[in-house]
Amino acid sequence: MKKKVLLGICGGIAAYKSCELVRLLKKSGYQVNVVMTRAAADFVSPTTFQALSGEPVLLDTHDGSGGNGMAHINLSRQADVMLIAPASANTLAKIAHGMADNLLTTLVAARSCPLAVAPAMNVQMWNNPANQRNLALLQQDQIKILGPAVGEQACGEVGSGRMLEAAELADLLCDVWVPSVLAGKRGLITTGATFEAIDPVRGITNISSGQMGMALARACRAAGANVSLVYGQIQTMLAPGLAYTEQAVSADAMLAAVQRLILEQDVFISVAAVADYKVKNRSEQKLKKLAGQTVPTIELTENADILATVASQPNAPFCVGFAAESEHVLEYARAKRKKKGVPLLVANDVSQAMGKATNQVILLDDEQETILPQMSKDDTATAIVARLAQLLAQQ
Ligand code: CTP
Predict the structure, then answer these.
(1) Terminal-to-terminal C-alpha distance of the chain
(2) Which of 103, 129, 241, 275 is most exposed, with minimal Cβ within 10 Å?
(3) What tens digit of pLDDT does each residue of 276-330 get?
(4) Across-strand partners of 264?
(5) Which stretches does the entry tag as region Phosphopantothenoylcysteine decarboxylase (predicted)?
(6) Does the annotation list 340 as a binding residue?
(7) Low-confidence residues of the chain, pLDDT below 70?
(8) Angle (CA) 232 234 237, round 5°
(9) What global pTM score does this model have?
(10) CA of 305 to the centre of ligand 1 (A)
(11) Residue 241 Cα, ligand 1 centroid: separation in angstroms?
């Protein structure tokens, strides 16, 4: 059955982004019921949301749209999750104090489903101590605060308070249903392909897209972890809601970034396809093809193994490695887990995984070897996080 999202919209210029949000949520298979404050209707017409959601849009407590005249009870009973985007400072303040003076705030008070809010306001309003006090109250009440982002604002100022983009909100909304098995944990993930320069325009890289690591970053975030991500070359969007992200393109740069961040971590998940070798005779200038010149030789030298370096440190975080194999997957993976000294290793056949949307992996740890079915990288990541959380809990 379709999951039902009750989407509240407050008055704010960011309401235009919510049109796209409704479209994305519908596309992902949700039923979306929109409730607007009167102020919201000054920014975007209810007709727009009605057309996008395919459902009647409710504006106020007594507009009579609910059959029994109790829209606040009916809608909140049916919803699987409630999201307010944009959430104004005024509505957040009212919710924090249990006020119910319009349909939106009444629905919040009468709901039994989880609530997430995406604040949108001017930077001064965001920083206002009263607003910050209200946000702390909302968090105490298990209300998820999504964003805001930092950036240029409609008023011309720059700072915190921009509503997250529709695609980011659609991604973060799913977290509401995920059990917080990594709550309070800090995790560092590497993903993507490294790039080893030959000259200023050429290099050695591989076909890793970064999707598996990004899926793991999302899954760890959804499970409540504070996630840092170090990524090489990727062909996927950066996941929203991560605590820290940094691009490090060469193996040396990735190692340096990991070593800088690793001390604070409980978990290290090494998904990056790191080049085993870098170019020893890298040219500062672009190599020229001159008539009569012999074919240039590229000399290679070994890169450090980032995962093995981290795993061998005293007080190392819980390490998860990947094994990309093209043959003898299980046999090579067992050997790799021992060699790198990691408690959990995810083995896959490169022909089934690299650059693709799905994956089929085997999880190897001290207790068991689990063959997972071919599934989306998001589902694979969820299964890896579930096993990781079990093993962490046993430590
Ligand atoms: N890895 C790493 N640093 C390297 C090479 C690999 O951190 N220089 C990590 C990868 O992120 C992965 C694991 O080690 O988690 C295994 O990577 P893989 O490419 O499968 O194996 P290699 O160690 O490179 O061994 P081989 O190429 O012989 O299979």
Answers:
(1) 39
(2) 129
(3) 999 999 999 999 988 888 888 999 999 999 999 999 999 999 999 999 999 999 9
(4) none
(5) 1-186
(6) yes
(7) 61-72
(8) 125
(9) 0.89
(10) 7
(11) 27
pLDDT of residue 65: 54
Angstrom distance (rounded) from CA 328 to CA 220: 30
Contact between residue 211 and residue 294 where contact means Cβ atoms under 8 Å apart: no
Q: Any idea which architecture 4-177 has in CATH?
A: 3-Layer(aba) Sandwich (3.40)
Structure confidence at residue 63 (pLDDT): 56
Q: Which of 188, 274, 330, 363 to mutate to test the pocket of ligand 1 (most atoms within 8 A of CB)?
A: 274
pLDDT for 193-233, tens place per residue? 999 999 999 999 999 999 999 999 999 999 999 999 999 99
- Whether residue 155 lies in the annotated active site: yes
Q: Which residues contact 153 (CB under 8 A, 6 or more apart)?
A: 122, 123, 159, 161, 162
Q: Which atom of ligand 1 lies nearest, measured to the CA of 276? A: 8
Look at residue 152 in the predicted model and tell me its pLDDT.
85
| Distance, CA of 247 to CA of 259 (rounded, Å) | 14
CA of 195 to the centre of ligand 1 (A): 14
Fold for the domain defined by 186-393? Rossmann fold (3.40.50)
The reply to whether 336 sits in an annotated binding site is yes
Sequence spans of domains, the chain: 4-177, 186-393
CB 14 within 8 A of CB 43: no
Pick the atom of ligand 1 nearest to 346's CA. 15
Helix, strand or coil, per DSSP, at residue 231: strand
Q: Given ligand 1 and candidates 205, 262, 303, 305, which is best to mutate, with the most ligand atoms within 8 Å of its CB?
A: 305
Q: Which of 10, 113, 155, 220 is catalytic?
A: 155
Same fold, 4-177 and 186-393: yes
Torsion angle of alpha carbons 177, 183, 185, 190, nearest 10°? 10
pLDDT of residue 85: 98
Q: Nearest CA to 166 among 323, 55, 5, 299?
A: 5
Query: Other C-beta atoms within 10 Å of 258: how many?
Result: 24
β-pair type (81-87, 144-145): unpaired
Ligand 1 pocket test, candidate residues 231, 277, 313, 322, most atoms within 8 A of CB: 322
